[in-house]
Amino acid sequence: GESVGLHLPTLSVQEGDNSIINCAYSNSASDYFIWYKQESGKGPQFIIDIRSNMDKRQGQRVTVLLNKTVKHLSLQIAATQPGDSAVYFCAETPPRAGNMLTFGGGTRLMVKP
Amino acid sequence: DTGVSQNPRHKITKRGQNVTFRCDPISEHNRLYWYRQTLGQGPEFLTYFQNEAQLEKSRLLSDRFSAERPKGSFSTLEIQRTEQGDSAMYLCASSLLGRETQYFGPGTRLLVL
User: Fold this and answer.
1) Mean pLDDT of all residues in B36-50
2) Do B47 and B59 form a contact (C-beta atoms < 8 A)?
3) Contact A89 B42 (CB under 8 A)
4) What pLDDT, in 10s, does the model give residues A42-67?
5) B 23-42 → A contacts, CB under 8 A
6) Half-sphere exposure of A31 (CA within 13 A, CB side)
7) Which end of chain A is more exposed for a tag (fewer CB within 10 A), N or C?
8) CA distance between the termini of chain A
9) B45·A105 Cβ contact <8 A
10) Cα–Cα distances in Å, from B20 out to A20, A24, B6, B76, B110?
11) Of all residues in chain A, what percent are helix, strand and coil, respectively (each to 5)?
């Protein structure tokens, strides 16, 4: 999702439901993508990554889907828990940019008990 | 704890003063990155090092910003003649050469009065 100033898009889900957080990336030639979780006052925490030669990758309770045709990335969280409440950022590595990460706007996930 | 560490965690300074932040990467990581994050936004890349070599510095925000990694281990980021617009979270990350995943530290929050 796109952020507008201080007003992050917010996804509110019930505990135990599945969450889907979406991200549109900017560079069709990017070859690496990554999702981070950031809790208030802390640095970004690595969740899962995917290379451009894949369209899906699964971790523990999380799945990342990559659709290169429409430059779209999504993060699926299964059985969302209150501890999943945070801001989620996607990031890409554009070509010829060394290992520089370009971050998208974040999405705030709120889990209701 | 063997993660990325940053000091200080918080810094309050007056406009016009110089500030220096330190980052200690994960011990075997060759690459070290600095990012800046303002409220409600994703991190913005500033510069990065591979061992002691600074490979990208064109993204530093002005000539008041400089970074060093003299022995290829810890790094410092200095801001000279601070301005109120420099108020932000300054994040450090590290990675292994040949691996894209960057691991972030907790950040240094700077407030310029």
Assistant:
1) 94
2) yes
3) yes
4) 999 999 999 999 999 999 999 999 99
5) 31, 33, 35, 39-42
6) 8
7) C
8) 24
9) no
10) 40, 35, 11, 6, 10
11) 5, 50, 45
